[in-house]
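FW: tagging you since you asked about this chain on Friday. Here's the raw sequence from the shared folder, copied in full. Didn't touch anything.
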Amino acid sequence: MNMYSRRHFLRLSLRVLLGLGLGALLPAPLVRAAATRPLPLRLPTGSQAPGISPKGPLRMLVFTDSQCGTSYEAWAATIRAAFAQFGAPDAFTVIGDLVDNGASDWHWQSWYEAMAGRTADALFLPVMGNHECYGENWQNALPEGYLARFPVPGNGRPEFQGYYYAYDCGPVHFLVLNTQWGELAELRPGLIAAQRAFLYADAAKQKSQGRRPWQIVLMHKDILAYDEVQPDGTSGGFSEAGRTFMKDFDALGIDLVLTGHMHAYRSRGHIKNFQRSADGPVYIMCGRAGNEYYAVPKDPFDLVAAPDDHVASYVTIRCDERALTLEAWTTAGTRLDRLTLTSNRQ
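HL: got it, structure written out here
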């Protein structure tokens, strides 16, 4: 029989109450006692990952939308399957909506504990999603829980510290962008303009210091709207996130854009100038890793679509300075997709 101290019991009880959104009913000192703190993950520091050659190889696992409701067992099952099939990666990411409610200590602790120590040696590249921008009352809020847990390299804008960043990992230059300007419009205005300026400043910096063979963007919301109503009232076609960034991605020579948000796997191949192309960025929306799923309609740009959006999946990347191979897998071990890109930046 497990014996718990009074302090341990109170801490567990507090996590449950906060997870149920009852923080407003608790004494303020008690809530402050559960103040967020960085999770014990290996986070990006400086400007590049130590121990991985700029020429590679790099092995990476990509997840998205690991958010869960009453239990994070689905996220635990996804990460177990990925590590069993792929082995321990050099790096991994969750492309937004890590948890269902970013203000909930219970959700964050449950998310972390579901990984069961598997990720201790892998670099984690966090990406903010819209669920990180919800308060305990499920209204839009500053993503304080996310920001406190994931200190990342600076971006030159103190008011947006932690919202977006760039980082070199082996042969890849990652651009981690933020698509939550809708949720944050009244709380942190100016997010789009700040990021577009950052993209071009970062490109100039790379030109002077040396450009990595691969340029990969990680951002939560996808470039296609599907049936989700956009802020301007439209649906279908290119999303607001797509219309905001895709011309910049063309101009900056981005190789691969990985997104999430719709909880379904879709591969579109190269798109340039908002048209199918023989070159330009490759756009892939990664499938969900948690227990929330939707029925996502097919779009004409979809070249590969998971046959069943109810099934959790993940993406693997293997790359060196010459080639990048991406595969998508279900947790049952079925391969959904495979593509290989070659680089001329060696």
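FW: The chain is about 25% helix and 20% strand.
HL: agreed, and Confidence is low (pLDDT under 50) at residues 1-9.
FW: great, closing this out.
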